[in-house]
């Protein structure tokens, strides 16, 4: 999504001379066009993310709309105190953009992964979290962020190639069940959702897929709530730890709004079960978020045998 993000920044900056871009010495082969277009409004703050967050808060206080960029753990966990104290407590409209959320940086290992970012960011006061799915979602997310006078967090990753999907919104139904009755509803967030579309037809035909793209969440669409009550089989899926992400958000809302007992299962990033590192796809598979392991988990949940 880096290419689409850079193009979106340039497009928005053409109409808004208050946009200032700060990078933590990252963005090679992605941000050159942004630097050329913005000129002195492009600042390489160096490997100094805490300082960059405070600089951005100061710029926002002076009426600018700063975008700060780095890879996910460097832009969220390292300057967390400055984001909380300087940006969020003062409700400054700083736009925090992270590349490679989840296992996005693969073989580079745990120091470059971030399976805590959605939770840690959405816990902060005044913060809104955006998790795009497609290339088109990147521009839509940024447009909405620029209209928001509060701090925002944007999680970038490898974009889905799915087409003909509903336009960006907090909740979207991506796929209805092909059969007359759904066997399960899978609610996911982020680009890991793409792995669901790679399931065998005998599984894919029987499930309904919903996508959540913004946090915090205060309500569930009535259509989805009614469908959950009818189908009674729900799976959540996220390339994020089980705490403070999609699963706990949805579970708390269902406890408040659903009176019908349901069967509920969760698929999430549990870290490094084998103690090894690999590609993003490899980590997803190890955590039952992709490939045969994902297929098996859904089969077990629905109590069906693999089709021969």
TrEMBL record:
InterPro entries to which the protein is assigned, alphabetical: PDH/Transketolase, THDP-binding, Transketo_C/PFOR_II, Transketolase-like_Pyr-bd
Alphabetized Pfam families for the sequence: Transket_pyr
Domain of life from the UniProt record: Bacteria
Domain Transketolase-like pyrimidine-binding span(s) in chain numbering: 1-160
PANTHER family reported for this sequence: HYPOTHETICAL TRANSKETOLASE FAMILY PROTEIN, PYRUVATE DEHYDROGENASE E1 COMPONENT
Protein name: Transketolase-like pyrimidine-binding domain-containing protein
Organism: Niastella koreensis
